């Protein structure tokens, strides 16, 4: 969930990786104003949404799975702690944590445990690094253990000194960096949170599977997973279940473009 007891961070072992198609601007973010990618706040990756439909990637590449916790009204902002993310005047943080039951945590541990690597936007990476990454004994926690031990990739134009072990910075264009990463690695690459990154990956057709955890609450404000004017996409439901506490799990795979009604049928009296 992105929250835990805090202790001394792990030592850093990191490097920086630049994709073959670098970002053409290369401009650093103004101080104090960075988006999820660590770039200028004025840049909006979701505006690239109409460049490609939401579709699966080709065979033979690393499977990219997004895992997102959302409310019934689609909010994903500040779910863990009250002060986790107050952007835009958000005042309803910590809405998911009281609803997490034992089965949800067990299943989340299983999801994290099957990952071969993790991919983050900068903001989510820093939240995770300050919580899961700072646990004194991460090997004793089913979520913290894989997060600590396995490769972590963070999409950022400005992050140069990540403090979490086994972190690689993906510099330049996010889509190009992730596409190249998928082509050169086996297994499953998981994206937790990282809303702007998820929207960009969806727009570029780089998501292979989506796991949505929907909590029985209407938050009423905050950032939604998908924007009001984003790309469309059909989804195939692979699995659906609910925990005793009312958290529903839906696993989807992209299924091309959605079908729309071509005419309005007459009403029957």
Automatic annotation (TrEMBL):
Phylogenetic lineage: Bacteria, Bacillati, Actinomycetota, Actinomycetes, Kitasatosporales
SUPFAM superfamilies, A to Z: Dihydrofolate reductase-like (SSF53597)
InterPro entries assigned to the protein according to its UniProt record, in alphabetical order: DHFR-like_dom_sf, RibDG_C, Riboflavin_Biosynth_HTPR
Domain Bacterial bifunctional deaminase-reductase C-terminal: 68-247
Pfam families membership: RibD_C
Organism of derivation: Streptomyces labedae
UniProt region (Disordered), positions on chain: 1-60
Protein name from the UniProt record: Dihydrofolate reductase family protein
């Amino acid at each position: 969930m992105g929250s835990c007891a805090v202790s001394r961070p792990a030592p850093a072992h990191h490097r920086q990786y630049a994709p073959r198609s670098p970002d053409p601007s290369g401009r650093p973010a103004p101080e104090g104003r960075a988006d999820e990618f660590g770039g200028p706040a004025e840049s909006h990756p979701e505006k690239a949404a109409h460049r490609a439909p939401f579709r699966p990637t080709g065979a033979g590449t690393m499977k990219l799975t997004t895992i997102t916790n959302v409310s019934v009204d689609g909010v994903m902002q500040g779910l863990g702690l009250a002060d986790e993310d107050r952007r835009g005047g958000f005042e309803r943080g910590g809405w998911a944590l009281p609803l997490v039951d034992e089965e949800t945590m067990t299943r989340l541990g299983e999801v994290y445990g099957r990952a071969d690597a993790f991919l983050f936007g900068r903001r989510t990476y820093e939240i995770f690094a300050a919580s899961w990454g700072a646990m004194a004994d991460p090997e004793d926690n089913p979520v913290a253990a894989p997060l600590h031990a396995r490769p972590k990739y963070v999409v950022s134009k400005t992050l140069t000194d990540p403090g979490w072990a086994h972190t690689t910075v993906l510099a330049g264009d996010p889509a190009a960096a992730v596409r190249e990463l998928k082509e050169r690695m086996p297994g499953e690459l998981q994206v937790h949170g990282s809303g702007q990154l998820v929207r960009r990956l969806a727009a570029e057709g780089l998501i292979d599977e989506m796991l949505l955890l929907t909590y029985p609450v209407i938050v009423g404000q905050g950032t939604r997973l998908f924007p009001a004017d984003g790309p469309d996409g059909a989804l195939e439901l692979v699995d659906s279940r609910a925990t005793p506490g009312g958290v529903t799990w839906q696993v989807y795979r992209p299924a091309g473009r959605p079908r729309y009604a071509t005419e309005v049928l007459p009403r029957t009296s």
